[in-house]
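In response to a reviewer's request, we include the raw inputs and outputs for one of the modeled complexes. The two entities were modeled together in a single run.
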Amino acid sequence: MSFQYRVDISRCIGCKACEVACVTANDLDPSSARNWVPFLESDDAVGNTSFAPYLCHHCEDAPCVEACPTGASFKASDGRVLVDKDLCIGCGLCVPACPYEARYVAKDSNKLEKCNLCEGRVQNGQAPACFDVCPAGARTFYEVVDIDGVEQEIRVGDVNDVDEAHELIVLTTPSVNPAPRLRFSGRLEDLELLKEKRPPRGGGSKTSMLWRNGAGKAVGALGVASAVAMGAMIGVRALRDRKERVAREERLREESQLKEDPENPAQAEKSADVVTEEAESNE
Amino acid sequence: MHSFGRTQNTPVLHGRDPENTVWVSPATAAAYGVADDELVELVNQDGIRQGPVKLHVTARMSDDAVYTTHGFGHNSRQLTRAYKRGIDDSALMTQYAVDPLSGSTGMRVNFVRLVKPHSA
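The model returned the following C-alpha cells for the whole complex.
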C-alpha cells in the first residue's frame, strides 16, 4: 500500500486545527508541530494573502535520507520517509537538506522530528490526524491501491468535497526535483504567492522554488511568467470557474423545481384537468 | 486562533500564537525609523505604555493607524505562559467619548506613538 495526498491552499482558512491535531495525535511539545500553516502576504497594498497548509512531502528521491550519516532517516516500503529515533544522533545534517523545511531537531529530546503521516492511523485505514480534522477540506488523503494491475487512488475519510478536476502541481527547487508526494492545487495567485513568499521555518534558509507538473516539467505560467501572462491565466481560470458556477446553479435550480412538483401533486393534476377541459371545449 | 482573552494560556494554542504583533504601514515604520520584526513600545496620549512588542510592517495597513490583536499582555503571573506576552490594547484606551443620545461609548479617541523600548 502507498499514499498520495494533496493540499488546496485556497481552501485553507488558517484555523491551525491541523497543527493542534498533530501535537495531540503524536504527543509533541505543544510549542512545536510537525506540520505548519504559514500566512503569506504580498508586498503591495492591494496584494493577495493566503494561508499555506504544509507538511512533509515524503519525496520519492528524498535528499534528507541521503544527508543522514547514521542511516536513521530511511524510506519505508510504503513510500513514507521515516526516522529511526534509536539511530538518530540529533546532528541536524538532514535539516538543511530538506528544501521544504519539514524537519527540525526537537528541543526536549534532541532527536529529529518529522511527519510520519501518523504512524498507526494510516495502517488502520485512517487518514493522518491533520487531514482528518481539516474543516475546510484543504487537506485530502488517498490510499494508492493496486486494482487489477492498475494503481488507483481511494480517498480516505469523509471530509468536504474536493475539486477533483483541479490541476495538481508539485513544488520543487529549480535544480532538483526530489519527486515530492505532496501535490498542491488552488488559485494561481495563491500558488504564486506560496512560491515567492514561503517564509522560512525554524532555522532553515529560504530556498527559491519552482512549480512543476506531474511529469516533472516546470510549469511555465507559474514560473517566471510576466504579469500579463499571469493575468491572462487568471482570466481563463476565472472564466472557467464562472462557467462551472453557472452550470452548478442551473443544476441546483432544476433540482429544486423537481422537488417542488411532487410536493404539490394536486396542483399538477389540476393544471392537467384544465388542459383537458380546454381541449374538450375546443371540440 | 484564540477566543479573545481566554485561551492565551492553553498550551497548544499558546504554541500556535504566543503573542500579538503591532501592524503598521511601511511609511509609518520609516517615519519612526523602525523595521519589520523590531521590538517597539506604544505610548498613548496620557503617557500609558505597552510593550515591548514585535512590529509587523505591511502595506495592507493605512498610514494613520496601528493594528493589533486583542487578548494579550496578561498581567496575572498565574497565567504562566501568557504572562506579559504581547501587549494589552485595552490598557491604551484611557479615553472614551459617550454618545449623548444612546449612551454608548466610542473608544477611537486614543492615539499612540511608537517608541524604541526603554526610551522616553
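As requested, we also summarize the result in words. The first helix of chain A runs from residue 17 to 26. The two ends of chain A are 74 Å apart (CA to CA).
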